[in-house]
Design brief:
The protein is 51% helix and 13% strand. It has 8 helices and 6 strands; from the N terminus they run E-H-E-H-E-H-E-H-E-H-E-H-H-H.
């Protein structure tokens, strides 16, 4: 799994770490494969998050990647994108994940639900804002969601229909025509 973005208080990556800890423990108890969490990004919360990961005993399972210019590629290669924010508009990482067909476990904030609804059946699970237990369930569900390369291609194509530059241009043109 990957969480990508600024290591800032609003991103609530402390919740991501706590949710990941619950998933890790449950999967170890159940004898399932043990996931790894990558945090791509830099920011004011970095030291706090590293300390929290240590307190939770996650050092072997969480890797802090720092700022990455290839975050979109990392998201495309990840099994799941994890978003734990308290507030969002339409996060770029969400669009990057959907453009790659990567499953998503996220808090239900901002425009996330609306964007996901544009691709019916997109593999995603949402949790309440600030609820790391629900977020853990969402993450565990998406870790079980195996998306084949063929399914990813279908998801990417469905996303492209909704968010391509041509679609955006047609919608903007329709707005201008309605106003005129």
């Amino acid at each position: 799994a990957i969480a990508a973005g600024r290591l800032a208080p609003v991103k609530r990556l402390d919740l991501a770490l706590r949710a990941f800890d619950l998933v890790l423990r449950k999967r170890q108890e159940d004898g399932k494969s043990v996931p790894h969490l990558y945090l791509a990004g830099d920011g004011s919360e970095g030291a706090f998050l590293r300390e929290l990961a240590g307190q939770l005993g996650l050092q072997r399972h969480v890797e802090f990647l720092g700022f990455r210019s290839d975050a979109a590629l990392l998201i495309a290669e990840a099994q799941v994108l994890l978003i734990s924010s308290d507030s969002e508009g339409i996060p770029t990482v969400l669009l990057e994940a959907m453009g790659a067909g990567t499953p998503i476990a996220s808090t239900d904030v901002g425009g996330i639900r609306d964007v996901l609804s544009t691709v019916p059946g997109y593999p995603a699970a949402l949790a309440g804002k600030g609820d790391y237990v629900q977020l853990a369930h969402a993450l565990d569900e998406m870790l079980e969601c195996l998306v084949s390369p063929e399914q990813k291609a279908v998801l990417r194509a469905a996303f492209e229909v909704q968010f391509s530059p041509a679609t955006a241009a047609r919608r903007l043109d329709a707005v201008y025509r309605a106003v005129l």
